[in-house]
Design brief:
6-stranded antiparallel β-sheet, single chain, disordered N terminus, alpha+beta
């Protein structure tokens, strides 16, 4: 069988179908399409899930199709038709070769860490790219880069290489022609360079460029972009933690601060920079070990390459950090986890078996991004669309089963469950809705879920009060709330002040009850707030009657802060109404616009929904 032909095998499991196809690397570009357009269209048209591996060694790539039997058959026929047409055009295209000469100072950017960049360019273009090794003596000399493949593949690969060189040259020119080095640089063993031992950076005496040394090659240091008009928000939920090994979530809103604390170089990474993750537990990798170790191993990988990153290289960093967690283990199993990096305008996500990750492009409605397989993990990538695009945000959903037994979840159901809450800036409600979807899909173990959104600061999901200047700081707000109390599992049961009965529900049960109430409020545009407060709230304010049900009165920010600080001090107040309002509720109250309803809020006394009324 010729290597350019596809091979497939299929099996069915009940009404579910599964087919694996092996296609030549040169023709996968025709299957994927520009920016993944064609493969996403195939998924929509056929109803099947199509995954193309990224880490196959050799001339072939693995294509996995899953879904109903009809959807799998339909997708396989469509793929065969696309590949057949592409093979016919390839058969008439002779082998081409192109030689480029690139400055030795840029070769490190082209090769990438461990060859990741050059391998990614070869996969994406379908061309073979070789960098000569016989001219490495002079670091300033040009290096020969040879490209083999079809005319289209050669042209695409050469353009990708030229783009890398152009970006590097632009970064150098932006630094200006001033050769005077910054403070801290001194002479070193390299004649044309100065070195700063503190930052581990080199300064070129000829060009004024900053560089770092990678395997004997000087690579330009990228300056990260600060996207000040992009914002990230996130929320988590853990349910059923009393049913087995408790899964956990991790949210890092600012990776730059963590890297600074760990003394790792991170200025080459864009702002904002965050991470959301959910972890389960295995014998090889206990959940606490994974939570503590993953982000540090990931940051070490990112900080080790200070030049520009190709999109594909981020997958290598994430999957590599997952493999680092099991380094030295003989079990051969991956940790149960899913994680997403939110960097500048990009989101990169992976999930290992026992977890699931879904990226979505959306606004009020959303559409899932098709994942691909790499090193045993599912990977997906999305970039924030331009302002004004109908899809104004990137949504992230990550979930892990504490026992590693997560049942399959359809991405379309995840979109329907979490999209509305993320559009309205309620990530905790989205995380709870994600866990509920997993329960409905058949997962019975403890679950950890995390949701996030990367969007423009003026995204339509957040409506601002046009009468209040953006910079204005409020001193007083009036709010009302619905409160569902819970028992922490330790000590005496709290008492519901409304019916005087002990509270026995756990926090996750209270959160799920509040999610149902939130959805009822949204459906009625909060017109039913007073009635729901009267029937459901376990706060004394629910007994006020009429429209005042749930009213907490006016909160004075300065007074609340002073009372909280003075409480417990000698001579300080011991019982003040406003000082009893949990800090979490006060914080949320002052972040709301008038009439706006909060996300699900958890405090030490219960689960809250807060609406600002004045």
């Amino acid at each position: 069988m010729e290597s350019s032909r596809s091979r497939s095998r299929s099996r069915s499991n009940g009404r579910r179908g599964h087919r694996v196809m092996h296609v030549h690397s040169e023709v996968t570009g025709a299957l994927i399409g520009r920016g993944g357009e064609k493969i996403n269209a195939l998924c929509r048209e056929t109803g099947a899930r199509i995954e193309i591996s990224r880490d196959d060694v050799g001339p072939e790539r693995t294509v996995t199709i899953t879904g109903s039997e009809d959807a799998v058959d339909k997708a396989a026929r469509a793929i065969e038709e696309i590949l057949s047409n592409d093979r016919k055009s390839l058969a008439h295209q002779p082998e081409h070769e192109k030689v480029m000469y690139v400055s030795g100072s840029f070769i490190g950017m082209i090769i990438g860490r461990g060859g990741e960049s050059i391998k990614a360019m070869s996969r994406e273009s379908g061309a073979k790219i070789e960098v000569s090794k016989d001219d490495v003596g002079d670091r300033d000399a040009d290096r020969r880069v040879t490209i083999h493949g079809t005319a289209e593949a050669v042209e695409k690969a050469s353009q990708m290489i030229q783009d890398i060189v152009s970006r590097s040259e632009e970064e150098q020119s932006e630094r200006g022609s001033v050769i005077e080095p910054p403070a801290g640089f001194e002479d070193c063993e390299h004649e044309d360079w100065l070195y700063n031992a503190t930052t581990q950076e080199f300064f070129s005496k000829k060009t004024g460029a900053l560089a770092w040394l990678n395997a004997g090659i000087f690579c330009p240091i990228r300056e990260g972009i600060n996207h000040q008009d992009v914002q990230v928000f996130s929320g988590t939920a853990v349910i059923g933690s009393d049913q087995g090994p408790a899964p956990k979530t991790a949210i890092i809103p600012d990776l730059h601060r963590v890297a600074l604390a760990l003394k790792m170089p991170f200025d080459h990474v864009d702002h904002p920079s965050g991470m959301v993750a959910a972890f389960g537990s295995t014998e090889a990798v206990p959940v606490d070990h994974a939570v503590r170790g993953f982000h540090e191993k990931l940051l070490r990988r990112i900080s080790s390459w200070r030049s520009a990153w190709l999109d594909q290289a981020w997958f290598g960093a994430l999957t590599g950090a997952i493999l680092d967690l099991v380094s030295g283990s003989t079990s051969g199993s991956l940790p149960v986890m899913g994680a997403a990096l939110l960097l500048g305008r990009k989101v990169i996500a992976v999930s290992a078996p026992g977890a699931h990750v879904c990226l979505m492009l959306g606004s009020e409605g959303c559409e899932a991004v098709t994942p691909m397989e790499a090193q045993g993990s599912l990977c997906c990538f999305a970039s924030l669309p331009p302002k004004g695009d109908k899809n104004s945000s990137v949504y992230v959903a990550v979930i892990a089963d504490g026992k590693g037994q997560l049942e399959p979840i359809e991405d379309s159901k995840i979109c329907s469950a979490v999209g509305p809450s993320l559009h309205q800036r309620r990530p905790r409600a989205a995380a709870l809705a994600l866990a509920r979807v997993a329960r409905k899909a058949g997962s019975t173990g403890p679950l950890a879920s995390a949701c996030a959104c990367l969007g423009w600061e003026d995204s339509p999901g957040k409506k601002s009060d046009p009468k209040r200047p953006r910079s204005e700081q409020l001193n007083k707000v009036r709010v009302r709330q619905i409160l569902i109390r819970f028992w922490s599992g330790k000590g005496p049961h709290p008492v519901n002040p409304v019916n005087r009965k002990p509270v026995t529900r756990r926090v996750d049960e209270a959160e799920m009850e509040m999610l149902e109430i939130l959805e009822q409020l949204i459906a009625e545009k909060c017109q039913n707030f007073a009635s729901l407060c009267k029937s459901s709230s376990e706060c004394g304010s629910a007994l006020r009657g009429g429209a005042d049900n749930g009213d907490l009165g006016w909160l004075d920010q300065a007074k609340v802060a002073a009372l909280a600080k003075a409480k417990g001090q000698p001579g300080g107040p011991k019982s003040v109404v406003q000082s009893s309002v949990p800090v979490a509720v006060v914080k949320v109250a002052f972040s709301l616009e008038k009439g706006e309803l909060s996300d699900v809020v958890v405090s030490e006394i219960g689960v809250h929904l807060v609406q600002r009324t004045g």
